[in-house]
Write a structure and sequence with these properties.
Layout lengths: L4 H8 L4 H5 L5 E2 L10 E2 L20 H5 L4 H23 L36 H16 L11 E5 L13 E2 L3 H8 L1 H8 L5 E4 L3 E2 L2 E2 L4 H11 L5 E4 L3 H7 L7 H11 L12 H6 L5 H17 L20 H14 L1 E5 L12 E4 L23 H9 L4 E4 L9 H12 L3 E7 L27 H11 L5 E6 L9 H4 L2 E4 L7 H9 L32 H4 L17 E11 L2 E10 L5 E11 L9 E10 L4 E8 L5 E3 L5 E3 L5 E5 L3
Parallel strand pairs: 3-5, 4-6, 5-8, 10-11, 10-12, 12-13, 13-14
Antiparallel strand pairs: 1-2, 6-7, 9-14, 15-16, 16-19, 17-18, 17-22, 20-21
Helix pairs in contact: 1-12, 4-5, 4-13, 5-7, 9-10, 13-18, 14-18
Amino acid sequence: MKNYSKEISEKIKQMTIEEKVSQLTNSAAGIERLNIKKYNWWNEALHGVARAGKATVFPQAIGLAATWDEDLLAEIATAISIEGRAKYNKAKEKDEIAQYHGLTYWSPNINIFRDPRWGRGQETYGEDPYLTGKLACAFIENLQNNGAKHLRAAACAKHFAVHSGPEKGRHSFNAEVSEKDLVETYLPAFEKCVRKAKVEAVMGAYNAVNGTPACCNEYLLTEILRKKWGFEGHVVSDCGAIFDISENHKYAPNKTEAAALSIKAGCDLNCGTVYENLVDAYETDLIDEDDIDIALKRTLNARFKLGMFDEKTEYDEISSDVIACEEHRELSLKAASESIVMLKNDGILPLNKNIGKIAVIGPNGNSQSVLLGNYNGTPVEYHTVYKGMCDYLGTDNVGYEQGSDYFESDENLLSKAVALAENSDIALLCLGYTADFEGEEGDANNPYCAGDRIKIELPDCQMKLLDAVKEVNDNIIILMFCGGGVALGEAKDKARGIFHCFYPGEMGGAAIARLLFGEYNPSGKLPITFYSSTDDLPDFEDYSMKNRTYRYFRGQPEYPFGFGLSYTKFVSDIENIEVSGDELKVIIGVENVGERAGKEVVMLFKSEKDAVNQPIKSLTRFKKIHLEPKQKTLVEFILNKEDFSHIDENGERVFLDKDKFDLFLNLN
């Protein structure tokens, strides 16, 4: 990509201090004489262009992680950025880019989903640093269209760093983390996004890290991000995070000093208005002009790379016709079909199309919001479970009753649901939550814990609904919707089949119908551990990885990381290991021994022998493959020197002999 330093320097040297500062907040001012137009940096594209009207809504990020499919993430990111360019082109005709119409997307969220109670865990790619990094890179590289003359869009890896709840108190929370956990768990995905995917932006978190707020944390933003990893893009604060430095963390005495600390530490762009105080900080010698210029060069460089100062770009002809087009909606259907995880099947599935009457029951049975998750766009059509079943079987064969609210029982709703179930052949129990109840502080409608869940168990009223239906119909299939895991407990034994659907996007109901009737073979795998009880979890505010995630949890999970059933059966084995210097080639044979075509995720794990305070096991490589019935293939993984190492208590990487590790496959 072209080096724009000469053009940037020309603009900067003509600006006053006030004009320079006006470019360093998310709502950047126009400077007409320099051909700098007003621009709002704030836009979202977590699983589709968000908050800007009509757009294709793909499954929520945690659902995309459950596909374990880098190629699919690449396709989706391409579609999102094409729709985003179309919206930008349309907005540009008005000669002003307002919030949610720009090309700088504050996505993806690559924080580690370390605790299932975190409401924003739905925005992530799960609990594993390796899986998160691989999927994030696929998303970023294709959202940005790396390698082209201009970036199609600018991605942003967030929230840097050590950020995963609780939402309540996030504006003053201090995450205390060891150097080992920092380097081993919380930073690797960010490093991959910087080094491999060349992500254009990194967003600083609200919280403090070991006593220093993330957006003025020189150790994170300068020593690690820029000096160690070589990051060349720009850093943006989370919205209001620099305000928090003085007003909530009480780390700085006032907003002027908070602004000065942040820009000197390496935060280039303020989502908020605190950077307006940089003029005062300059005039009182808290910062010098070079501090402002460095930040300005980085932010202007992003706009140049996006083609905002060129007369034309290769993306100018992208029209609004691509927004929510048929091709993208089919891609959303494919993604939903691959994101849903089958947790139980006693043989009832797949259903026969002539099964008879289907009862769709539960608060999520005809919910539109359950499809969307948070940070979403607006679909042209919502395929709820009820609609999906009606479209597939015809309305005469499908009935719907709500049965219960999300957290409260209603005897009238309950009796109607029981009556429907009693006169149906199959009861689909659509349970769980929506993003109306879990998500970000201020967004979710549960002020008692600011978007997080207090417990991971199924709400009592929903268990009561399940019990009542069970009394009149034994053929129950649970469709669970949630941004994270739900501890099903006794519910597991009362259903003949269970699917975890996350928040499956606009085509969710259509995908569920295809899966239930075997038109599509389930292939989703859990990107998180499903725990048996809230009692299994450490204190929410404890950021130590001890007894967290599959890597360190020593209890018995309800469903383990990587779990997911299929309508066919795969067998796999490590057939050969070849050593060549520091590299090791692992050759895995995989065979579909069943009667149906399907997709399988080959997962290679490692475990260090006789290790002390090291992961029980760690995902090392993975690949999703498709096999026809009776087909066999070989999958090859190349491991390198870094794969045979660990992080010590000081956060240093220690290289070990290959024979210190066991390699094995994760088998359901």
